[in-house]
Structure prediction request, 336 residues.
Amino acid sequence: MPRRFTAFVTRIAAVLSLLMLAQSCLKSDNPGLPPDVVDAIAQTGHNRVELTKTIGHFIDADDSIYLQSAYFLIANIPHQYAVDYTIKNEKDQEVDFKPASFVSYDALEEWWSMQQTNGHRLFYETKRFSLDRDTISADLLISTINQAVASRSYPWAKAFTQAAFYQYVLPYRFENEHIYDWRTAISHDFSWIADSVRANANAEEIIQLINEYVNTNFVFDKRYLRHASVQTYPEIMLSRRGNQSDLAQLKASIARAFGIPATIDYVPYLADSISGFHFAAAQNSTGKFIPLLPANSENIFKGNKIPKVYRRIFVKKDSSLFAQKTLSLKTPPYLG
Prediction:
């Protein structure tokens, strides 16, 4: 099919989709789209079909939280993106790097050091960016919303505000990882969580259960410190090990899947040290975020200085680092 004809068909489909959505909105008891949602849809091309399809799916939902959830995700989608990183040598050749292929961390570091001294210095490079607004599917958005709203039915989830739900339960991503449906698998694999606690269990009990389970059944493996990307849920369930970011994302994902507001915090430099640290943080029943720390890390924040803690959030705020900095200013990888 000629490229021009394909582009024409795509534009026609987008226009028809918007017309159908407009008609649905007019027939609805609450007509009209929020301005920030309209703006977000206008910023994408052919993928506006997926965004409008999502809204159309929930336009007449009995509970308004479904439609409001769609509005929230779409309104905040323009600044969401995934990043592919690769490891290259000085000849601009990609290096096939698999942490698990080394028998130990020392063996990995020895190999890495040899590359540096043999004139094949290794470095990380951004391979590509993928904007969510141009790649996300209606199926993923609809599934995310349905499962997130369903998680509000857990007894411990009733302690959280709707604002906390939108910001820290509903979002489908944590950092700049590739987007996919992780809730379905987690809800299935960890269904025992809801079955193993008392009927009126609170959030603190669930958070402790999640943290202890991951700390007991998954291993912090220093070999993964040089891994260029966060492991997906299927990958870490297979490897049963990872770096701090991998384990933090696993904990936060499980918490969100069970209706608990959660995110990932990062400390670039711990007090009186040159080391950084990723960890999950989840809201307790009083709305306070508490850290889900690895085992034997009780003293990790003790020191004479208070470290800076960065939190990745889904919403765009005027007070955020990215709203304040100029586009030409580079930021470290952990800040995206």
About this structure: The CA atoms of residues 43 and 78 lie 7 Å apart. The domain at 132-139+152-335 is CATH 3.10.620.30 (C8orf32 fold).
